[in-house]
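Researcher: If only I could read backbone structure tokens as easily as an amino acid sequence. Walk me, if you will, through where the backbone shape changes along the chain. I have put the entry right below:
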Amino acid sequence: MKIRRLKNLEMLLENISPHPNPKVELEQYSTPANIAADLMWNAYTLGDIKGRNIIDLGCGTGIFSISSLLLDANNALAIDIDKESLENAKKNLTHIDVDSENLKFIEKDICEISSVQELDIKGFNKKSDTLIQNPPFGSQKKGIRHIDRKFIEIAISSANVIYSFHMKSTHDFVYDYFESLGGKITHEFSYDFPIKKIYDFHNKESVNVDVIVFRVENF
């Protein structure tokens, strides 16, 4: 299926279902279709998707790996610690007309590796072209301490170009951390990310959080 407009991509991504059983300790929040589509369209226009090998780290619903195939990526590798999320991502793949043979799903705790290449997956046993991640922000007491840093470190070790979501309030820290590891920030994309009432401690039906996505070059 050839995607010629941003709106076409967004409409297709609206078919992707959210986390079936979100886990607070993993800070699982589904990326909305409009935000995922906008980011992926920007990545596509910058030459980071078509014909590229894509890693979707902490893939959740699979929205980034699936959309990369819609935008003519060579292949995609979707990695997540949560088996339930991976099963849901596989179901989401069936809702959209893409070649499932070009998308691999891997269940893995990233705290056990230092790079994706350690997994020795065919087609991904050397540094990949592009990695996309919307990692836990590290804001939940039940979450893994400094897990956002671990995502950054693995991204730097695993891909030449990185798109990484973070809370806007952490901008300076994340910017400096990427650059301290050898990355170069080339672009920043800002979004109002809606956090819906999915956990017991949420008091409002929805709250918008200011989020920034860094594009990082790591050649």
About this structure: The chain has a mean pLDDT of 90. The longest helix spans residues 33-45. The first strand starts at residue 53 and ends at 57.
